[in-house]
Amino acid sequence: QFQLQESGPGLLKPSHTPSLTCTVSIGSISISSNYLAWFRQPPGTGLEWIGGIDYTGSTYYSQYLKSRTSISRDPSENQFTLPLSSVTPEDTAVYYCRLRNDGNDYWGQGNQVTVSS
Fold it and tell me: What per-residue confidence (pLDDT) applies to 65?
């Protein structure tokens, strides 16, 4: 029913500020009526929640990343975005977007981000 696709940079140098975008194929439903979230999975570790935005536009963030990001959405483009400031090698991970609708979760395939000098 829904399809999500992440896009963004693959290889970055430290201190850059990349932005990841999730494009949602959602038919006639607006993304604004759903809970949208970003996750990441660093090498060899589990999935980590970064933050999300709900149907009211309220945003929620991991305490570890909230100072470095500000999730936004563009319903006209069916997209939501994750900027991440001043990246370091510790930000190397596969980044995933997720949409929750009626208790069902829909995931993108992931976007590998590698931070290396």
Answer: 95
